[in-house]
């Protein structure tokens, strides 16, 4: 096997050292004096020098193309394309042709001639992002994908906001964890996979989605409501509280005077005021979060009901809001009298304690667990009076209260005296 190098570019000496360790090297250079100087400076046993032009058919008669694994060109873009046409169309060469340069050839010519392009600035950019932005935590693989940030490797440390979280708690639209390396072993992740310190996550997806994922996992940056969608909507609502949310929630656009949230593309959240919208949320089964305004901003103290559904995305959203609004989070669980608690409820309570403790340690926020005994609706409403600014509830789209089947999230949302956030349990892996 041999590799042909075209031209004495800036990096040829290093390339020769690397390639000659695994293959014979043929070096083509039209400047004979420069070629002799190079050979005197860097003698290599399995290096063969061919003086002449790479566009000369006669030169290639001295090369056994069937044994050539790759042709690597350090020539100009134009010269590389000429050589590629000669090799592909006149000589029938089917091996790899690689162009190394800071300039990129015409994309159509690259496809037609089956060229591989190595851009030095792009490689250096990826390496510098590893060193500077990643700080030893985020790695941008070189030579994989389009090199636009659609593939990254994330190292989870003890201080990461994601440590001990389940993957379903970390979900973002447009990004997914494709593989996890733990102690050198590759693992195929599932939604309930729990992340541990030292894990390396291979994240793939849309560059923007991957960027949001990395920001949330490494730096704890708020991703609400972007994990659901990039657009916000105002449904027959205005005033100070709506302006308060518009100024602080990071969305790409706001749709004014929205009458039907389901008709808004990429919707991440909508704001509404009258209580009829609560009924519509549960009746229509909206798969995106909604704020129901009661004029209790600023949101300095957020109460999260653990007696409602979608607890993982609900708590993640509440933590994001605490960062955005500068508040604190209280998680309320109303259980039966301890003597009558079934085993599954006791297990849930213990897991909830661990979840709240982890959230407090990894976020640096004030996160507290409150436990009450009795009726979840009555105890929650009693606690809300005068102490909290925002109630956060989780729900499953499609479920709603009925005469013989009361649904706690809907009952609380309808009766809440404070502004309420409704967060659905939905699959964000799209």
From TrEMBL:
Sequence intervals crossing the membrane: none
Domain RCK C-terminal: 139-219
PROSITE patterns, alphabetized: RCK_C
InterPro entries, alphabetized: AAE_transporter, NAD(P)-bd_dom_sf, RCK_C, RCK_C_sf, RCK_N
Domain of life: Bacteria
One of the Pfam families matching this protein, by short name: TrkA_C
Record protein name field: TrkA C-terminal domain-containing protein
């Amino acid at each position: 096997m041999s590799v042909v190098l075209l031209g004495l570019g800036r990096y040829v000496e290093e390339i020769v050292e690397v390639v000659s360790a695994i293959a014979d090297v043929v070096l083509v250079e039209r400047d004979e004096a420069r070629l002799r100087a190079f050979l005197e400076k860097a003698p290599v046993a399995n290096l063969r020098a061919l003086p002449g032009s790479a566009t000369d058919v006669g030169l290639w008669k001295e090369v056994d193309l069937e044994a050539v694994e790759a042709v690597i060109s350090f020539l100009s873009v134009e010269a590389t394309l000429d050589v590629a046409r000669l090799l592909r169309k006149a000589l029938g060469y089917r091996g790899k042709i690689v162009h190394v340069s800071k300039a990129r050839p015409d994309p159509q010519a690259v496809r037609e001639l089956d060229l591989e392009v190595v851009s030095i600035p792009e490689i250096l950019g990826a390496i510098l992002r590893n060193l500077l932005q990643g700080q030893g935590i985020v790695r941008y693989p070189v030579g994989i994908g389009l090199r636009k940030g659609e593939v990254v490797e994330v190292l989870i440390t003890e201080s990461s906001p994601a440590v001990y979280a389940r993957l379903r708690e970390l979900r973002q639209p447009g990004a997914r964890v494709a593989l996890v390396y733990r102690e050198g072993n590759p693992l195929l992740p599932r939604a309930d996979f729990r992340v541990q310190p030292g894990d390396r996550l291979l994240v793939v997806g849309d560059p923007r989605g991957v960027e949001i994922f990395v920001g949330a996992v490494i730096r704890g940056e708020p991703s609400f409501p972007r994990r659901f969608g990039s657009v916000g909507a105002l449904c027959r609502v205005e005033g100070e509280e709506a302006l308060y949310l518009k100024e602080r929630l990071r969305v790409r656009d706001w749709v004014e005077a929205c009458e039907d949230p389901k008709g808004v593309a990429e919707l991440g959240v909508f704001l509404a005021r009258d209580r009829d919208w609560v009924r519509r949320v549960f009746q229509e089964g909206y798969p995106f979060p909604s704020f129901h305004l009661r004029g209790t901003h600023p949101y300095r103290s957020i109460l999260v009901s653990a007696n409602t559904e979608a607890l993982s995305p609900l708590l993640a959203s509440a933590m994001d809001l605490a960062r955005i609004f500068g508040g604190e989070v209280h998680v309320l669980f109303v259980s039966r009298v301890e003597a009558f608690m079934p085993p599954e409820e006791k297990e849930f309570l213990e897991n909830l304690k661990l979840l709240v403790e982890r959230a407090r340690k990894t976020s640096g926020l004030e996160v507290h667990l409150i436990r009450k005994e009795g009726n979840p609706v009555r105890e929650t409403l009693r606690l809300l009076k005068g102490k909290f600014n925002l109630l956060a509830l989780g729900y499953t789209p499609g479920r709603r209260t009925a005469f013989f089947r009361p649904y706690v999230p809907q009952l609380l949302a309808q009766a809440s005296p404070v502004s309420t956030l409704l967060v659905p349990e939905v699959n964000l892996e799209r």
